[in-house]
Amino acid sequence: MRIARAGRMLGVSMAGGAMCMLLSGCYSLATAIHDPPMPPGTPQAVTDEQLVGAWRDEERGSVTFAANGTFVAKDICGDFWDWSGQLPDPVDPHSRSGSGSWKSFTWTPPDESEPVTEVTIRFSDSKVSAQYTAGGTAGSVKLWVYMGDLDNYDLCVASRSSASSTTAD
Prior knowledge:
The protein is 21% helix and 40% strand. It contains two helices and ten strands.
């Protein structure tokens, strides 16, 4: 009788331990899965004139767009891609300095009614580029992009610098 009772207790203990491991694993998985940070505001359609000037990201990186289609960047955050091969390759790190050219493109995504502007920067010393989407509000436009692996949810957001200039130095 004692052996049968001990066997049942061991079975209950093992089942309890297995349940605990299962639940703690589910909890770990649930805490690892979280909502990605949301891009700022709503998609915005902006003109090149609205883009010209200095923009600063949350890590104090900056990019200045000139009216002539050039830019100067200092540690600007972004999702950078190297287009020198047959297929683009992601570039680490998530910030970059340099100069080059920029271009905007405004379009209306499928199944959407509002247009959005995207800005591409291309660094002149390489075939590296990055693309940002305009968001926010009409009174406070932001440029944003998810950086790197989408599962990491790293969001880069740049805002107009309060000391915005109209030319790239």
